[in-house]
Amino acid sequence: RLEGLFLIAKRALAAPNLNIEESHTDFMSFRDDGGIMLAPKGIQEYVPALYLARLLTHFAKMPVILSIGGITDTHKIGLVKVPSDDSVRAWLKKTLRDFDYLEHKLVNRQGDLIVHGPSGTSAVYQETQSEIEKAHQAVTRIYPYAVRAVHDLTGTWLDELEINSATPTERIETLLIMQGSLYPNAAEALEELEEKGWSGMACISVRCFNPFPEEKLFAWFNMAQRIVVLDRSNSFGSIPPLASRILSSLARFTSCQPASAGKQLRILVGGLGGREITVAEMKEIFLSTHLLFVPPQEWEAALIREWLEQDPILRAMLQEAAALDLRNTNRHTRVPTHLRYQRDQDEEFEARTQMLKRFLSAKNYTAFLAAYQQVEFVGQREILQESTLLQQVVLYVEIRLARHGIESGQADKRHALLLLRYGREQSDRDLAKRYLEENPKEAEDLSAALMSSYGVAAGSPIYGQRIEDAGGLVPRAAEAIELTSQESRPQSNVTAVDSVPSPQPQYSSEEAQQIEELLTQMVTLQGEEPLFYNPEDFEHELVSRLQKETGSALFELNKRCLPAEAEELLLNFRHLYRDTIDRTLHREILAQHHAPELRELFEGEGMKRLTELVEGLNEMLQAEPLEKRQKTIARELERYLEERCLPGLPKNPSFYLEYYRDWVVPGLLQID
Question: What are φ and ψ of residue 463, in 5° steps?
């Protein structure tokens, strides 16, 4: 079998039009080719994923397809943390020690390697497929060993799934499943919702698409009541690729469960052709699924059937939706009138109306909102706005049900939350608040932050507590906990590379200052002369210059030490000053050549204001545990930046916030 890596930048290559921005269509075209498929969530995760792919192709003896977002990730400005060449070589030497690349290869009588081409007759073709299937099953067993080895090098865990939620796992009700570059915005949206007090939701990124981590998903299927699958690739007239894998896995899971309750499913497609699914849109996906996609109670189904017969507004909205559907048929097709009569169109209109009624009466919103009863598109820009109309129908029905349920004493907390979130009139919100205040048992597992944000005098601080308003502080929930599956991670038995004992360099603030000065000079020179330096080139030049500086630990390194000692000392030196090197390069390259406003934000007066805020917050929160205090301070600083400093700056706020999270806030949190 072929061992090798296929590295692709995901592009929008689906007919009828193309562009170089991100969709997952080309990546998904590999799914039936027999290779391992990895989908890291961003450029920082892509680097350790490269090392993982290198190990997997050797361990599994099959190709690995590793993807990255076209434009989304390929055209970002910034530094990527890459282990040094020396450490990677040492790691490969250690990890692949005694590895036999020719194991099980066929040799003829003369000792020459026999290479088979890709052709296969009917006598062997099926067996080849079945053996590859067995190999994929074997990959699920050896995958943890490769993950463990990559963690030893990079400090990054790359499990098949990444899960983000602050809700205890046994209380998760709504799952949003996606992969790749969609995940960061989804995780940020979930964290913001949790800060406001929402709970019961989680998002999952599927890093390994082939072999599909079906069994690891089963535990989440068992807990969740609602499952949303968000694809960045469409399959015309059918289920998109990730959703098809999720649905088949869910079917197998359900078949093994005695009298398993049905799950509410929602299949979404969005972000095609490079279009962003914003954090606000991700929030709406979470909340609409969490509050609306719920099986009907008996009284709800009876009411909907009654309204379908008696409510003129609802009937008119459904008839308009059916008329728009017919109009779309006429826009996209042309059939001669002698073959398709007017009565045929009338029958199509009536059939569509009855279908919408069936879906609505069963609260089957997955089918009701979907195009061609398959998928629902996110942020669709339509000529006739037919999707928007269907969404309005769902909200109209759900709001009426919530009002009736509260007034008749048949409601639960979901109906109240629905009115608070989607109520169109003040009377709706007043009705919901009164219900929650009069039914404390219904509200006892709702957070104080969520209740207070809607002005409800109820709730308990399960996930966070309110910080009294002082100096601009607002309620903040506890920091979201990122859950990453760590079961079955084997301990590495690989022995360390033999090395010659050498003196260990000690951290020196003077050395760090010298490193900053030299790197700043080189970045400045890069803007004046065509040096064409990459980040690694800066580091090589830095090491070369330090060996000529008398005050440096590297001064005349090759003269003072044997080659093996010099190599070991240099490796330790780079590790010791890694943060200093990366921080300085990141700051100077961006501030000198791309975003000079970073200095105004995070140096001089800007840093002074941030430091004063940290000192004030530290004093106010002195009674809180250190970890909780630091999380609260980090969030308050980020809110200050978003509201006071970032509006009006030329770049997207996420650009500045990423720099702040990487290099600014760690230093600020050390202030006591």
Answer: -100, -10
Q: Classify residue 53 as exposed, middle or buried by CB count within 10 Å of its CB (0-12, 13-18, 19+).
A: buried
Which amino acid is located at 91 in the chain?
Answer: W
Query: What's phi and psi for 524, nearest 5 deg?
Result: -60, -45
- In whole angstroms, what is the distance from residue 384 CA to residue 327 CA? 9
Identify whether the C-beta of residue 206 lies closer than 8 Å to the C-beta of residue 213. yes
A 10 A CB-CB count for 272 gives: 21
- Cβ-based neighbour number of residue 244 at 10 Å: 17
Runs of H (alpha helix) within 201-297: 214-223, 241-255, 279-292
Closest-CA residue to 418 (of 398, 391, 444) = 398
Exposure of 123 in the CB half-sphere (CA atoms within 13 A): 0
Decide: 668 and 631 in contact? Cβ < 8 Å: no
CA angle 541, 543, 545 (to 5 degrees): 70
In this prediction, the residues of the chain whose per-residue pLDDT falls under 50 are 459-501
Q: What is the pLDDT of residue 476?
A: 31
Return the DSSP state at 135: H
Residue 260: its pLDDT value, please?
Answer: 55
pLDDT for position 495: 41
Integer distance in angstroms from the first to the last C-alpha of the chain?
A: 58
**In this structure, how many other beta carbons lie within 10 angstroms of the beta carbon of residue 383?**
9
For 489-523, write each residue's pLDDT tens digit. 444 444 433 434 455 778 888 999 999 999 999 88
Give whole-number Cα distances, 551 to 479, 510, 542, 554, in Å. Answer: 44, 9, 14, 9
Q: Where are the alpha helices (DSSP H) in 101-240?
A: 125-154, 183-195, 214-223
Q: Which amino acid appears at position 623 of this protein?
A: A
307-323 residue pLDDT tens: 999 999 999 999 999 99
296 exposed, middle or buried (CB, 10 Å; 0-12, 13-18, 19+)? Answer: middle
Gap between the Cα atoms of 414 and 403, Å rounded = 12
